[in-house]
Amino acid sequence: MRRSLLALLVLACAGFAATPAAALTRIKDISTIQGVRDNQLIGYGLVMGLQGTGDTLRNSPFTEQALQSMLDRMGINIKGVPLRARNIAAVIVTANLPAFAGTGSRIDITVSSVGDATSLKGGTLLLTPLSGSDGQVYAVGQGQLAVSGFVVQGQAESLTQGVPTSGRIPNGALVERQIPGQLRDLPEIVVELDNPDFKTAARVVDAINAYTRARFGKTLARERDLRTITVQRPANLSTARFLADIGDLGVVPDTPARVVVDQRTGTVVIGQNVQVSTVAITQGNLTVTVTETPIVSQPAPFSDGETVVVPRTQVTAEETGGYLSIVRGPDLQTLVRGMNRMGMRPSDIISVLQAIKTAGALQAELVVQ
């Protein structure tokens, strides 16, 4: 029994090694586990200790109200007292609560100004409850802000570097409540692909089944659709260790034939599986030059004439290129080689790709951003 199991493991490893190592991608890098995700938290708080760069309380009444409420809870009554402090700022605190984060663990938080504060540098966030979408408080944040941007202002000029009204506090929040549910409570293991594709899902299922067949003697994975894959939990292995094992399995993801064009920056990204039918392409540049050379007309001496400006316009048109080239497909290398031979610029390539798609010769999805 041990020899047969060892032989199966050797055959499975040999099958994985037959594919080039550079083409293999771990399953954990192209997928996520359904139910294992972060949870977003948000809270409203105050930052103190600013060097005159805080909110103007007259323009930010919510900052003054929050300060009064905080001092009232501390037993200090300032109602009716005008406040002119510039060392305080109202902020929104956001954080991501990782999956299965236990009580007492720490998470990073991001602090952003709400009012008209010019900088949060040097400030300290006061105790701020962080709530989830259900209204429950899951963490509290407090600590010294780390602000990378700065602002320097004089009487006639100011200099701003980065974003001084936003900062982070590493490990600035303490988890007070754990998200309900544990990994072992999941009814089934569902693997979700980051880039949904039927062929990629089938390859992931084949890789998992090859592993489970060699180790457990049966297949445990089955594709549900192009995005999700269901995997049965083995009886004699913990869920965490099983996910760690299948996450290291290598597959070759299949990429769709897609061309992405960004007209603002002139960026063109062409996928590997893009195919082009044989087409004839002509591309030329038309340059129109308009030159204004006005002439001043002087009247004869001792005459009643007036000096006038006579307009003179010269228009010339020059068209370069325009020769016809045949780009024979069907692979990406031929398309790129043909466009480079024609000396096309990124803007020209974008126009040609759109025209090829309209002609029905581009056998790929064209995404224009």
UniProtKB/TrEMBL annotation:
One of its GO terms (cellular component) is outer membrane-bounded periplasmic space. GO terms for biological process: bacterial-type flagellum-dependent cell motility. Keywords: Bacterial flagellum, Cell projection, Cilium, Flagellum, Periplasm, Signal. InterPro entries: Flag_FlgI. It comes from the Bacteria. Residues 1-23 form the signal peptide. GO terms for molecular function: structural molecule activity. Pfam families: FlgI. It is found in: Bacterial flagellum basal body. Belongs to the FlgI family. The basal body constitutes a major portion of the flagellar organelle and consists of four rings (L,P,S, and M) mounted on a central rod. Assembles around the rod to form the L-ring and probably protects the motor/basal body from shearing forces during rotation. This is Flagellar P-ring protein. It comes from Aquabacter spiritensis.
